[in-house]
Amino acid sequence: MSSSTSDLVTLAAGVALALGAASGVAAQQAPLSAQDSDPRVMGWMQGFPPPADKMITQPDSVYFSFPRLRWSVCHLREFLPTEEISRGVGAPVPLDYPSPAKFAELRAQIDAVTFLPQNSDQPMTWEESLFANYTDGMLILHKGQVVYERYFGCLEEDGKHAIMSMTKSFTGLLAEIMVVEGTLDDTLLVRDVIPEIGDSAFASATVRQVMDMTTGVKYSENYSDPNADIWLYSAAASPLPKPEGYDGPDGYWEYLQQVQPEGNHGDEFHYKTINSDMLGWIISRVSGKPVTDLASERLWRRMGVEQDAYQTVDGKGVPFAGGGITAGLRDLGRLGQLMLDRGELNGERLFPAEVVEKISAGGDRSKFGDGFPTFGAGSYTSQWWVLHNDHGAFAARGVHGQTIYVDPTAEMVLVRLASFPQAQNGFIDPTSLPAYQAVAEFLMANN
Amino acid sequence: MSSSTSDLVTLAAGVALALGAASGVAAQQAPLSAQDSDPRVMGWMQGFPPPADKMITQPDSVYFSFPRLRWSVCHLREFLPTEEISRGVGAPVPLDYPSPAKFAELRAQIDAVTFLPQNSDQPMTWEESLFANYTDGMLILHKGQVVYERYFGCLEEDGKHAIMSMTKSFTGLLAEIMVVEGTLDDTLLVRDVIPEIGDSAFASATVRQVMDMTTGVKYSENYSDPNADIWLYSAAASPLPKPEGYDGPDGYWEYLQQVQPEGNHGDEFHYKTINSDMLGWIISRVSGKPVTDLASERLWRRMGVEQDAYQTVDGKGVPFAGGGITAGLRDLGRLGQLMLDRGELNGERLFPAEVVEKISAGGDRSKFGDGFPTFGAGSYTSQWWVLHNDHGAFAARGVHGQTIYVDPTAEMVLVRLASFPQAQNGFIDPTSLPAYQAVAEFLMANN
Fold first, then answer.
1. Which of these, A100, A203, A328, B62, could form a disulfide with A307 (CB 3.0-4.6 Å)?
2. Where does the UniProt annotation place the signal sequence (chains A, B) (predicted)?
3. Where are the domains of chain B?
């Protein structure tokens, strides 16, 4: 199990982001509340031009540190080059809503749902949890119908929000679709798919080990170590021109070619973002398409989504398969519904049910370790988190509080987009996972 | 009248682009034909990764020089930070098409239309002109119906293309809407709208002079002069981190604050991009909204467009009001139809007819000079080109062959997106403007 800091990911196009360091400092200073750090309250980027102290610019150590990140999570494309995940040019398929009266009633009921946060004997209401978690958007679908939808901070219904490591679950879903459809053999070694991976530690891993992050690869995120891998990775991935004299890897894929071994493939789950980028390379090589096009063709163009999504890229135009996607709240709800309904959406089958059955069944729990105590004794497979709880829930998760949470028993899909001051979900799970369970039980009992 | 090189604009976010210089060199080497330089034929950015000699990366002197620019015009966001011009989340309003049989018949007829290029006695067919002009997309609407639509090179029906200086016509249209609606007084001096313009030469110009580019401001685009203003402008506008020791203006607006005078306000039309950025600042200050939001609210959300557009930004998030927009071909056709129909589209009035009446009436022809011999004795007003021909045509125009051409007499709207090797439309007009007239006459005679 990697250390808790490995829960961090490099942002977006991989520009160096000391997320943990920056947010840790902020936390020690007692961060502003959700209400006080609302970007509209803060006045970020208001005015033409904004006052100097309200301007948010490069570098990412500025724009992606709290409280500025509460604005920036909705505006990543304004800082970084991106590729589109096109929805095509057709009409979206509207989501199903109850009557306005029923919708209002449900909101009041759900806001009043109470739960006990982890390690606490102080009950909290659902609505309180939204603020405790610096929520920017919350959508709940029950039996395919929107029963709850609220926006805060920088997000609006026609806006988009960085989904951080939920990007991995896009990459993993696309890979799993290819495996089930027989176009990707997950028993192959990486070097059999990408010969030029060379002497990289990834060479001898299987595609499945990459998908499940059980590779034995060295990738440290110790921010106090100037030689930590995170810095080299960030430098490689930055879309900005390389500094004079830079002779390191250029782009995600050159970085992956020089990864060193650490431990043995297959032994343990280690949450390391480089696996996701390795997987992105694999599925691009096999399909002949960038991950953005794959996501567009297999998902976005066929899901009736409302908005294009986008994905940050490195200096060679390679999308950040480990964390680069920005998308709309409702469209992520559609993705969750597609997962709940095992590959069907709007009456159309997009991929075999087996894809979701494999993901929701989870990975090898014995390899999960105890590094995510707030998440519990779960597993990780095909870049999705599986809770192994009595509702069979599984999730996409990203730093600062992003989640798509699918509860098959309650027939519930929940999407939260957020800008929690600290990156690690370990800080956010205690007031989130019990809340999701409580809402699921409310919906099962009342609807 | 400024020199012919002033027909150039800096690209996108203003990164230094020696468009004229680069494309001039290419031209001397006899550029590849449209067919041979098709980016699919060239193999740009194919493969995972592409071969090194097929990779297109920063800087813009590489990615925006011919023949690479034939790929890059469809992929600007992959190089630069951008802001969205949102279409909202509703359904698009489909364009009207004839039956497939009629559509095919019309295409054959239009492809066979012949015309005499300027200064030539060799007739050319319409279809030949498409290749002569390195056309990427061509759309013709007649009486509101699509009668011709073809895609080439990097563009497809669900793709987007840089529109270069046609961006100015977005900015000017938004300004004219505000003038006609009474929220912007075009007789005000710039310093009365933006006091911090300070001692800039723009301070004493009227808003109307900025709109019509009759300001007396120094802005040279002599690429062989290292002190030419274009370089300082590009350095200011670049979204990349400023080089160490850089002490020049940062962003479009700081640049505008230090512009020097040249000639007198109101004397002559000088095609200088900085006027468009000055106008963008003015309408943002007055409306309290960035030009991207203005374009979204007043145009894109209300036009039934199919795709979001986007606009490149400087390092402070200010959109490039003089050249930064990328959009879809059909959506630009919708904009042309909106202009043809004097502010009405899909049965809805978006702005007063007077807006288009003022634009199509043109500017002061006595100030136009003779710097655009291929365009003829026209005028420029509110950032639109007016031909003052017997059809009353007017146009948005951008380097490398972009145009929205509105012919009220023929009830024709024509949109061309292109990637001509050289920037200046003076090279492209001879095989374009007579072709447009010929097609207009064909449509009037036959439909």
1. A328
2. 1-27
3. 1-183+291-447, 184-274
Q: Is the CB of residue A57 less than 8 Å away from at least one CB of chain B?
A: yes
CB contact under 8 Å between B317 and A78, yes or no, is yes
Q: Decide: residue B96, CB within 10 A, 0-12 exposed, 13-18 middle, 19+ buried.
A: exposed
Answer whether B189 touches A (CB < 8 Å). Answer: no
How far B288 CA lies from chain A's nearest CA (Å)?
7
Looking at A226-384, list the stretches that DSSP marks H as alpha helix, in order from N- to C-terminal side.
229-237, 252-256, 274-287, 291-295, 329-340, 353-361
Q: For B45-53, which contacts have Cβ atoms below 8 Å and span 24 or more sequence positions?
A: B45/A317, B45/B71, B45/B75, B48/A281, B48/A284, B48/A285, B48/A288, B48/A290, B49/A251, B49/A253, B49/A316, B49/A318
Range B184-274 classified under CATH 3.40.50.720? no
Catalytic residue positions of B?
165
**CA triplet A351, A356, A359: central angle to 5 degrees?**
135
Chain A segment 127-186 residues within 8 A of B by beta carbon are 157-158
> Inter-axis angle of helices A274-287 and A166-181, to 10 degrees?
40
CB atoms within 10 A of CB B31: 18
Q: What is the pLDDT of residues A215-242, one digit of tens each?
A: 999 999 777 788 889 889 999 999 988 8
Q: What is the largest CA-CA distance in chain A?
A: 64
Q: Which residue of B has its CA nearest to A284?
A: B48
Provide CB contacts within 8 A for A336, sequence distance 6+: A141, A404, A405, A406, A413, A414, A415
Interface touch A307/B308, C-beta < 8 Å: yes
Using a CB-CB distance cutoff of 8 angstroms, which residues of chain A are in contact with residue B58? Answer: 239, 241, 315
Other Cβ atoms closer than 10 A to A29: 9
- State the ipTM, two decimals: 0.93
CATH architecture of A100-164+323-446: 3-Layer(aba) Sandwich (3.40)
**Distance, CA of B345 to chain centre:** 21
Q: What is the pLDDT of residues B285-342, one digit of tens each?
A: 999 999 999 999 999 999 999 999 999 999 999 999 999 999 999 999 999 999 999 9
C-alpha span between A16 and A231 (Å, rounded): 6
Confidence of residue A244 (pLDDT cuts 50, 70, 90): confident
d(CA A191, CA B52): 21
Whether A165 is a known active-site residue: answer yes
CATH of domain B1-183+291-447: 3.40.710.10
Residue bearing tokens 């208001």: A46
Distance CA B241, CA A37 (A): 27
Query: Cβ of A280 under 8 Å from any chain B Cβ?
Result: no
In tens, the pLDDT along A365-402 reads: 999 999 999 999 999 999 999 999 999 999 999 999 99
- Find which of A55, A89, A156 to mutate to test the B interface (most B CBs within 10 Å of its CB): A89
Out of A6, A72, A165, A360, which one is annotated catalytic?
A165
Which residues in chain A have their CB less than 8 angstroms from residue B315's CB?
57-58
Q: How far is B116 from chain A (nearest CA, A)?
A: 37
CB of A307 within 8 Å of a chain B CB? The answer is yes
DSSP 8-class letter at B299: I
Give A310's contacts in chain B (Cβ within 8 Å).
77
The pLDDT of residue B28 is: 55
Per residue in A273-290, pLDDT tens?
999 999 999 999 999 999
Considering only CB atoms, which chain A residues are within 8 Å of B253?
Answer: 49
Cα–Cα distance, A11 to A427 (Å, whole number): 19
Residue A328, chain B, CB below 8 Å: the answer is: yes
User: How near does any CA of chain B get to the CA of A47, in Å?
Assistant: 7
**Nearest CA distance, B412 vs chain A (angstrom):** 24
Band of residue A138 on the pLDDT scale cut at 50, 70, 90: very high
Size of interface A-B (CB pairs under 8 A): 96
